Amino acid sequence: MSDRKFHSGIDYSLSILQEKWQPTLIFWLGFRPLTLDELRQLVPKMSGDELKAELAKLQNLRIANPIKDTENCYSLTEDGKDFRQMMMSLSIWGKQQMNDNENKRSVLVIEPETDAKLSELIKYNKPLRDYINYDE
User: Fold this and answer.
1) Label partner for 133 (CA 20 to 30 A): which of 2, 43, 93, 124?
2) Structure pTM?
3) Phi and psi of 34, rounded to 5°?
């Protein structure tokens, strides 16, 4: 991504959002700090090497913290948290517009509690797919 020349802030932001796994990882990392093993369980289609490479990209973009916390968890930087908030607002707005255009009723989706068990979070991947496009 560093070789590409960007023409605007939107262009730069979209380049991140159009990556296959970046929005999903940004969502989960901003939800609460997570270990590599927890991230593997939340995004099971990613190999361990893919996950490490994507985390390194997010760290280089200053979206994910470059250093794991004392519990060996990954998390977002303050800029990453801001980006996540904008990403979520954009995804909710977009899904509502899609539903309106198709005369469908939008379903209110609420994030799980931050202390939810990992098994509950894994179930959340299904509704998350409607808002953040990725291959599960």
Assistant:
1) 2
2) 0.87
3) -135, 145
**Which residue reads 């509502």 in tokens?**
96
pLDDT averaged over the chain?
Answer: 89
Question: 33-56, pLDDT tens digit by residue?
Answer: 999 999 999 999 999 999 999 999
Q: Cα angle vertex 24, ends 91, 40, to 5°?
A: 160
Instruction: Give the HSE-up count for residue 83: Cα atoms under 13 Å, Cβ half-sphere.
Output: 27
| Phi, psi values for residue 74, rounded to 5° | -95, 150
Burial 28-53 (b: 16+ CB within 10 A, else e): bbbbebbeeebbeebbeebeeeebee
